[in-house]
Design goal:
This protein is mainly β. The protein has 2 helices and 8 strands; from the N terminus they run H-E-E-E-E-E-E-E-E-H. Helices cover 10% and strands 62% of the residues.
């Protein structure tokens, strides 16, 4: 019923915003992590994540840069080596070329030297978008990852698996080719 009403509005008035919907995200992803040359003005090293996956938004890629503290901090939530994350940004690109721009608002890395992996969290706020994300807004998006070195003796290149969760409002679920046909 809602889809039919959207089509009628599109045909009669060209009202695309009326068809924007809320998307509950649970996107599965994987990829790599390595040091980055991006300068986030923190005075600390920057990591870059290149990820891809699928879920409620279809196929997508996600690129994230983030920087943590220079030295480990104490944390009751981490039994390993803990680094709070200071700054970062991200861009999610959907299969149709639409971009969702993200600003990092928090996060952490909890490194478990015995297991040889880290539990990494990045929390983002939506700051804009293009295409079907041009009206996107929402609460926080949480990226939760398991990161492990590709070669255990070389801590420069890492394999990543994880999940991006949260809610986005104002997402137009019709792709641009479908809108052009109406």
């Amino acid at each position: 019923m809602k889809h039919a009403a959207c089509i009628i509005l599109l045909l009669n008035f060209g009202v695309a915003a009326a068809c924007a919907e809320q998307a509950h995200l649970k996107l599965t992803l994987s990829g790599t992590n390595a040091p980055s040359t991006v300068n986030l003005q923190t005075g600390t090293d920057v990591s870059e994540y290149t990820l891809a996956g699928s879920g409620a938004l279809g196929q997508f890629t996600l690129r994230v840069v983030s920087a943590g503290t220079a030295y480990p901090q104490a944390s009751s939530a981490c039994s390993g080596i803990y680094f709070p994350i200071l700054a970062g940004e991200g861009v999610l690109r959907s299969e149709d070329g639409s971009l969702l721009k993200l600003n990092l608002t928090g996060g952490s890395d909890c490194i478990d030297p015995v297991a040889g992996e880290a539990h990494c969290i990045r929390t983002f706020q939506i700051v804009g978008g293009t295409g079907r994300f041009k009206n996107a807004s929402g609460s926080t998006l949480n990226l939760i990852m398991t990161v492990a070195p590709v070669v255990p003796t070389n801590l420069q290149f890492f394999a990543v698996t994880g999940e991006l969760t949260g809610t986005i409002s104002g997402v137009d679920n019709e792709d641009s080719s479908q809108r052009a046909e109406h």
